[in-house]
Amino acid sequence: MRTLNTKEISDCVYRLARKAGVTLTPACHAALESAAAQETGAARFALETVLENERTAAREQMPVCQDTGMAVVLIELGQDVRLTGAPLKEAVDDGVRRAYADGCFRKSICDPLTRENTGDNTPAHLHLDMVAGENVRVTFLPKGFGSENMSRLVMLTPSQGRKGIVDTIVETVKIAGSRPCPPVCVGVGIGGAFDGCAFLAKKALTRDVGSANPREDVASIEREALEKINALNIGAQGFGGKVTALSVACEIAPTHIAGLPVAVNIQCHCVRCEKETL
Fold it and tell me: Which of 136, 123, 62, 137 shows the shortest CA–CA distance to 94?
């Protein structure tokens, strides 16, 4: 049995949040460079501007996007770890609070009815998963809402099957158009229940851009959906072109015999996701 004070988790969240706020993931950077090489005209100019913005943000340690996002934190907690110190949720929020203050990141979290801002970008959206072992895996995903607002969850019928899944993914991106700052990354949840399906879509966005699901039948859905999305000609920032999406990532879970939930979580081109194992 390993003992871990939650202050270490708080400090980890702080480190990840500070880095994620100013840095795109390497896989996202590579995908954007590849997209720029494929485009011409306004679409290429938009992508080159995005890449220049990324370089400036990293050099100056300034936010890579003005929407520094809702703090989404995924923690895989080994069942052989005994936590001490402050409650886990308080520790996570403390890490977010300190990072957003020290990084001069925009605080965007408010009451949904009064719209009163909490002032420190908390509470974080925490997902906790118990796993085997003595390690704690922390993933930090700052999620901007220009893209989050374009997301959907659809309860398909089983008879709609694979075609219904692909059509839902493509239709969601088509409806979104230029609003989520394409080229987008698309996280997809397939199966589970209403709530679990949405989490699968969010979790899919923590994968490396361009990675494939290990199940071939799921990977084939990713490939087909990406091909059809990129045929929409929305293009970078809506200027038209070959690349409307950088990737489609699907996560899957068993569901009820009467249902086929599909969640589509849109992420803009600004993929910020950092991970650390304690």
Answer: 123
